[in-house]
Amino acid sequence: MASAVAPPPVLKQEEAAVEPSANDAISPADALYDKCAERPQGHTFFQRDLSNMQVAETMAELTMILQELCDRHLLKLMTFEGDPCWKLRSRADAEKLRRLTPDERLLYHHIDQVQAEGIWSKALRARTNVTQQTLTKCLKSLESKDLVQSVMSVKFPNRKMYLLKHLKPSEDIAGGPWQSEGDFDVALINTISGIIAQHVENETCIRVPGNWNDYELAVMHKKEEVRDIEEAPAVKPYRPSRDPNTSRLLHKHNPQYPTAASVADWLNSKEILKGKFVREDDMEQLLEMMVLDDRLEKISGTNYRTVLRAADTKAYNGFVDAPCGNCPVFDLCGNEGEISARTCVYFGQWLETTSEEV
Amino acid sequence: MAYTQRETPVLAELCTFLVEDIYGELAARVYSILARYGRQTLAAVARASYLSGRQIKYGLVILLQQHLVFHSGNDAPTTYYEIDWQNSYAIVRFGKVTKLVEDRFGRKAANVMTNLLALGHTRIADLKEAYFPTATESDDDSDDGTANGTGSKRKRANGAQVNGAATRKNGVPAELSDAKPDSAVVANGDGMTNGDHKPSKANGVTHNAAPDHAVQEQGADEITSVDELYDLIELLIKRGWVRTVNETQYMSPGDMHDMFQQEAIEQDNNGATPTGTKDRDLVHRGIIDRKRAMRDEWLKVPRFARTGRPNSSNKRVKMNGANGWAASSAPSSDDDLVIRVNPEKIAVAMRTEQLVHLVEQRLGYLTARIYQTMLRMLESNIPRCWDEWPEPSLPGGEPGAENGIDPHFLVTARDVATKLSREMDIFEGLDPNAVVQITRKGHVHRTNILSQPIDPSRLSLDEKTMVVDKHIQLLSEDPLHFVTWHSRAGFSQWHIEFEEIAKQMIQTEVENTISSRKGSLGVKLIRTLRKKGKLDERAACNTMMMSANDIRGIVNDLTIQGFVQTQEIPKVDRREAKHSLHLVWYDRQRAREKLLHDTYKGMVRILQRIAYERGKVQPTLEKAERSDVVGKEEQYLSKGEVDTLKKWKEVQEKLLLQLFREDDLVATLRDFHGPLISV
Ligand code: SF4
């Protein structure tokens, strides 16, 4: 990096460049701005990137240039992990900002800070300490200048949240595809998760009829090894049903396990959710919820499959299947006294015996 | 205090019940004093009770014989007595133990086990005596038809008597020795007078519980020679079901710790009390090493002398595969060896059973059989579910056993295929496409039916191995990861991460409990919190995709039940609740302990109800047990009385079955995994 002392003339020249009057020679600040503008929109610049553009000759000069661009609202100063960094603003936006009153600028600054999360007008007032009137007036003006937008929060339906115009409100205030008017759309969620459960089942399970491998029958048809069938069934300790009308749902062998991305694609392609696009994140939220609901289970990393239960038992465990495990007066029940095992009506019902009267 | 020695008043109550049921009122009275007051001297017990010194001593001898009580040894000036909670609770498992042993080693071994349970610790010579009495039998009154009632009780009493000498030698403190000669009287006498029903409780439900087989049982299951008995004992010791008894097993964990600490300080730290971190670490390591050494000592297989059959041990070596136990039969006086049931092994076997059951529910019958085969093969190499004294990780940070797993903990698909009975339809539970891929015969119709059916019993061993491997893959893919792949040896080689599975089993039981009480919503909340940690209402709503109103109720309910914790973090100085952050979370160790505690209490209630139900039919029961009535029930008992008895049997059976299922839950919650680190 150049170590020469910044020559004062450059500074002069730069000051001149700040003047709106058109100069033939483009100022270093504008040169830097133009170079930055070549990068994709929304790019974040670090000091290293900017000095590599070789517009400024020294660090001191670069600092001056950056200061200037910030003052002109063409750059926005931010920090990332403690290091300063910058983002570009369009000239039009910068122009609008330059024309703001100090109050408006203050409010704009705070709204800018919360980004997509938005900020409630009351909170804004608390932070900026402006009067209610000023607040109302300024916010209106900012909205009319297309710099900020207001959105009703889905979380707190009576709160107006402010955020910059070009941002998409976060899910917290606008809600994802699963929400409508601020709350989870239970009916929609149930329908869609039902459809998805079926989809995942088709992908990961196979329904096998009872007679899928009826080798005994096959043997019988051949009429050769009749002796075998007489022996075989007798010793089998456990024989799955051969009835073709019964069937079992089993885990598929080597399936393509669905992932949040694949299910989202599938759902979007089916266009079941009219007008709504389901992002991978949204789908992950839903699938994870279905895991909590015990409808899906997660297999290594990002794969999901259907939860199968081979046995349909109603038993829970030794404790809760006995009367005491679900007893409403469990904590009051003692070794003696009015509530005890002797007087217990629940045991009485369960065993069909009488209990001591109290 | 050692984890296993933590007790709660409820557990004390439960254990006192169990002791009274099996060992009678006198033992129970002494026991309950220790349960209530904790560690006591003989004199203190005497002060706290209305029993005579003699009675107390009798009581203590019974308790010591059964390892229900620790004592601090003869060296110290005063001897202290302290309850062994773990062993006391284990009384409830007697019936189960017999079943577990029978499933694995057959009825004869189960019979030996049953007797060991009934006798407490036993000198091998005495056990032999019990099976093959020398000429004069004075106490042969147990042969009569008193099925499981008084007969077996007397049996136990005999045991105590026969053991007299051994017991004194082995751990009964000198101050109790004068109680010995009369112990038979105690046993037969007042201690046991109450309730002939008692042993039948242990028998009650389970398949063939404790004292049911009289020692001299006749028939095909009879042990016919002393050598056979020795073989069985040896087998049980080698597989870790029975262990040898020495003085250290009488010591309470606290005393044992003190002793080893003393030793470690003297030997490892030149007698100086450790001050620095390094010294303390050294001594700590020394203590743990000593505890491990002592414990391993208990499980050492002693050498047995034979009377005949020189080849017996060879046969066994073959049977056990590469169990490394040389066929040496160097004579030694093993008759004096004192043995007892190893409670840690029981927990291992119970874990096996429960895992198999779990797999059967999740993946089906056959996959469960495969898992059972794997687990049982590993079982003989697994001395305990979790290690209370694991090797401390080395200071260098080097993880203990980083390269590879002890081959004893591995099992291959081929091992299983070889072991598996030919009668099993090993295709059950598999995708037909997987089957065709292996057999390469025919194809799968669109209806998922094989074009060429295949008889599973006609597969080659290679094919069978591959089929088994498919089942094992199902086990490994399950979110519970019942097995974990290790290498390609034997087609595929696996090990089992018991630690993780045990945690999940605990979680499953907590969820089952909540599911039964609060349905799927409660389970959903618990799972949410388990996955996400501490949450405020909003985050919980987001994860569960529900509105706050829908979850508030369940959060409240589960908080009251103690499964969910809440916390309020004030955000403003005035601590207004409105402005505070309200967090909800789930602490699995707390939930586990709460559920365990409640289960103990549930068991107490069941025992109380049994007592109550029995009380109601007591007169009829007594009549039915009168010697003139037994065998001629139809003649002496009215229809009403017969019905009453029948109903009582059903009621008792139902209650006992429930009790044993609650014990299964206790095992899952308490025995399969050490303390969990709270979140
Ligand atoms: S004994 Fe009866 S009242 Fe007492 S806890 Fe059990 S079910 Fe409830």
TrEMBL record, chain A:
What does the entry list under GO cellular component?
cytoplasm; nucleoplasm; RNA polymerase III complex
| An example Gene Ontology biological process | transcription by RNA polymerase III
- Determine if Ribosomal protein is one of this entry's keywords: no
Per the record, the major location class is nucleus
Q: Which family does it belong to?
A: Belongs to the eukaryotic RPC34/RPC39 RNA polymerase subunit family.
Q: Which UniProt keywords apply?
A: DNA-directed RNA polymerase, Nucleus, Transcription
Source species, domain of life: Eukaryota
* Gene3D superfamilies, A to Z: Winged helix-like DNA-binding domain superfamily/Winged helix DNA-binding domain
Please tell me whether the keyword Nucleus is annotated for this protein.
yes
Q: Where in the cell is it found?
A: Nucleus
Q: What is this protein called?
A: DNA-directed RNA polymerase III subunit RPC6
Q: What does this protein do?
A: DNA-dependent RNA polymerase catalyzes the transcription of DNA into RNA using the four ribonucleoside triphosphates as substrates. Specific peripheric component of RNA polymerase III which synthesizes small RNAs, such as 5S rRNA and tRNAs.
UniProtKB/TrEMBL annotation, chain B:
Q: What is its main location?
A: nucleus
> Which Pfam families would you find in this protein's record?
HTH_9 (PF08221), RNA_pol_Rpc82 (PF05645), WHD_POLR3C (PF22536)
| An annotated GO cellular component | RNA polymerase III complex
> Keywords of this protein's UniProt record, alphabetized?
DNA-directed RNA polymerase, Nucleus, Transcription
Localisation: Nucleus
A single GO molecular function term of this UniProt record? single-stranded DNA binding
Q: Which InterPro entries match?
A: POLR3C_WHD (IPR055207), RNA_pol_III_RPC82-rel_HTH (IPR013197), RNA_pol_III_Rpc82_C (IPR008806), RPC3 (IPR039748), WH-like_DNA-bd_sf (IPR036388)
Q: How does this protein assemble?
A: Component of the RNA polymerase III (Pol III) complex consisting of 17 subunits.
Annotated function? DNA-dependent RNA polymerase catalyzes the transcription of DNA into RNA using the four ribonucleoside triphosphates as substrates. Specific core component of RNA polymerase III which synthesizes small RNAs, such as 5S rRNA and tRNAs.
This chain's protein is named DNA-directed RNA polymerase III subunit RPC3
Q: Which organism is it from?
A: Clathrospora elynae
